[in-house]
Amino acid sequence: MNKLAVASVIVDVPTMQTNRPFEYEIPSALTDVVIPGVRVEVGFGRGKRKIQGFVMEVKKTSDFTGKLKPIIRVIDVKPVLSSEMIKLSYWLADRTYSFQISCLQTMLPNVMRAKYKQFIQAAPGFEQDPEVQQLLNGHLLVELTNDTTDEKIKEIAHLKRSEKINIEYVVENQANSLTRQAVTTELSKDALLKSREGLRKNALAQQKLYDYLIKEYDNLPVESSVIEKQNDIARSTLKTAEKNGAVKFVEITKRRKPVGIIPEQQKAPTLTDEQSEAVSKINSAIDSNDPKTFLIEGVTGSGKTEVYLQTMQQALNQGKTALMLVPEISLTPQMVNRVVGRFGDQVAVLHSGLSSGERYDEWSRIEDGSVKVVVGARSAVFAPLKNIGIIIIDEEHEASYKQDDNPRYHARDVASWRSKFHKEPLVLGSATPSLESRARAEKGVYQMISMKKRINDHPLPHVQIVDMRDAENSAVKGDFSPLLKDNIWRAMKRNEQAIVLLNRRGYSSFLMCRECGFVLKCPNCDVSLTYHKNLGKMKCHYCGHEEPVPHICPNCKSKKIGFYGTGTENIENQLNEMFPEARVLRMDVDTTRRKGSHAAIIKQFGEHQADILLGTQMIAKGLDFPDVTLVGVINADTTLSISDYRASERTFQLLTQVSGRAGRADKEGHVIIQTYNPDHYAIKDAAKQDYETFFKQEMYLRHQSGYTPYYFTTLVSVSHQDEGQALKQSFWLKKQLQAVLSDQAVLLGPSPTMISRKQNKYFYQIIVKYKRGPELHQRLLEILSETQSETKRGFTIAIDNEPQHID
DNA sequence: AGCACGCCGACT
DNA sequence: GTCGGCGTGCTC
Fold it and tell me: I need a surface site. Which of A262, A272, A394, A663 has the fewest CB within 10 A?
């Protein structure tokens, strides 16, 4: 009998050199337990280091010529990775040029990441050694933490060299954190009552505990922490009761269920013609296991969400599951209630507000099949659903679907992969599709579904563009044109609400001297410091460096140093000055930092407890406020000035979306867009809510300049402490790439990134535009492994496939 | 990553 | 000589 005795393991060491499977012997005691997808603990390296790894494959023999180490321990009882996820991780690592271990870790809840600890222990026979005793200070084990001083490390290294101490490695599994200590009783309720009577008169704490146990008898076991904190019963009281046989300590696995109240079950409304046509097209793809991609181009208010819900229902009817992605920012209670209202408690919602424990619990509920519908932001695309019947991506153009650190994956690509794996449709929906998706629909790669009518024939808002270069407008002191000011006033008078959007990208409150032009910059990074009001300090967004606000210019000693640029706070002040009676709510990064505050602001505004909602991009997304009749955009063009080929697309999308916020109910909406570029097509087309015209114009320009969707783009950046070295290396890289690319491909750069210095490293980037690039892909992978030794000398190479921003 | 090995200078 | 500095290369 030939046993499967070798496991192929991806180890938790994120480096290029260890980015491949390592083989381990499966001890006979662990056969049948070590199967693909489980996590294991293995020894790695020459020392006694222990780390976590993922079993990818189990086989009979190994080609490895050395001696295989055994697997030390199996962490999971059942696999945490399905065969689908294992396959997906290979594809993802290849596509994003990332380490496979990083991919595996992103696919799983954070708690599955191992925590490593090191403990110092006296070597046998050296327990009494004075040096060892001094180090351990009477303890048997001392943890070696990250904050150990250099001197102490030296001392430890000494002792280790002379073999007086050993270092013990411990791999901790954080996912265990969900078992908690709880209290219960083995006594009957009557017995408890009896014991309660038998307590001494002055044993007040015990009496209180018994009373609690009797009252909560049906809810036992209760977590000890709950009893201790909420009911102020001391641990010693519990211990005493334990001794007396009244209570018993047990371990419970607690499932936090974040979706608290399940809203009333809602019936599916009748569909419009456009909606039912969309539903039937998608449903037939579900029925016939057709992994095609649909692109729903539907104007705001056309009822895309209902199409999503009914097609998801179809998948469920077939005994399948459904996955729906929405941008984090639209994961509002309104949205969630709508889905939960339809599907009840078979829904799991994965949003960033979940604690890591909650996230793990939701993951388990999905994994064990108790959840049929998953709604979530980007990372929910890895939800461990089995037998997926449909995948939906709402607002598919959103840049936040692309992760901006490693692995730099796009949720749309992962969804597409899974759609093919499950042989089920993928539905992309947007009022303003990304150029690449819309172009694919044009070519017939995606099937286009267009929804042009608004439900109940709500008219589109009336949009006006205000040319801020006009004499009348440039003369005003603040940032409000007379027209916008007047319209806000009117809306206030009619007791309606207004939204004011400040397009603040690349625009912030930095400090500038009006005498000499000096700008306060970060000493480590090449960016200006921004003012943080709650800190009262200047802060760097990249490295976190802080310093006090100077009152005289460090350069010319003038006192004319002050803030420059329009921040939300500044606009808020202007609004308060102009409309002293209006209640202004501000929503930006500062006011929404606290968990739940985003939802709180939306709720407050939705209940008309404020008159004006002022904010940045985040107010533009999918919110429905019936009393809003006016939307004002202060500076429509700041996103245009960014040196990014997607600048026009982003501007168009933002303006179209925010305009959709006005007048969704019976009242007509009015939108005022202030700009210095009134003739720009992105602004003009957005004002007309005319996606198709914009699409044609933008496609023409992309074609002219050779960008997505006509070309693929890959961004390669090189960094080093020394600017010259970084530049030298990037020229070398360019030469390497040139050699494998055809004449059709274009290489731009190397050029310094917009922020050319971050954390004291210099960054240069090369943009590669190409039509067909298997050679490029191969060469980039090779370069990554060839340059691994350079990595240690301070070089880093980062590759971003289809970047969302070039900066 | 983290560790051992190994090759150099300056110390009992 | 040898201790300990850091550079190099390997980990099943």
Answer: A262
> Is the shortest CB-to-strand distance from A700 to strand B under 7 Å?
no
The annotation places the binding site of A for Zn(2+) at 513, 516, 522, 525, 540, 543, 553, 556
Q: Structural domains in chain A?
A: 2-108 (3.40.1440.60), 116-177 (no CATH), 179-253 (no CATH), 273-455 (3.40.50.300), 462-505+567-700 (3.40.50.300), 712-801 (3.30.70.600)
Q: List the A132 CA – C1 C1' distance (angstroms).
A: 28
pLDDT mean across residues, chain A? 85
What residue ranges in A87-215 does DSSP mark as E strands?
114-122, 141-143, 165-173, 179-184
Per the model's pLDDT, the better-predicted residue between A305 and A259 turns out to be A305
- Which residues 161-180 of A interface with strand B at a CB distance below 7 A? 167, 169
The residue whose CA lies nearest the C1' of nucleotide C9 is A789
* Alpha-carbon span A255 to A457, nearest angstrom: 45
Going by C-alpha positions, the residue among A746, A744, A733 that lies closest to residue A780 is A733
* CA neighbor of A615 nearest in space, from A726, A501, A530: A501
Nucleotide in closest CA–C1' contact with A65: C12
Cβ-based contacts with strand C at under 7 Å: A 13, 15, 17-18, 22-25, 43-46, 62, 64, 66-69, 154, 157-158, 161, 789, 792
Tell me the binding residues of A: 513, 516, 522, 525, 540, 543, 553, 556
Task: Express each pLDDT in A645-700 by its tens digit.
Answer: 888 999 999 999 888 777 655 678 889 999 888 889 999 999 988 999 999 999 99
- CA atoms within 13 A of residue A420's CA, in its CB half-sphere: 8
Give dist(CA A657, CA A330) in Å, integer: 12
Q: Strand B closer than 7 Å to the CB of A47? A: yes
Q: What is the pLDDT of residue A506?
A: 40
Our measurement of CA A153 to C1' B4, in angstroms, reads 17
Q: Provide the whole-model pTM.
A: 0.84
Closest CA to A256 of A296, A226, A215: A226
The two three-digit tokens of residue A308, written as one number: 């999503």
DSSP string, A260-308: -SPPPP-PPPPPPHHHHHHHHHHHHHHHTT---EEEEEE-TTS-HHHHH
Torsion of CA A406, A407, A411, A413, to 10 degrees: 130
d(CA A275, CA A368): 33
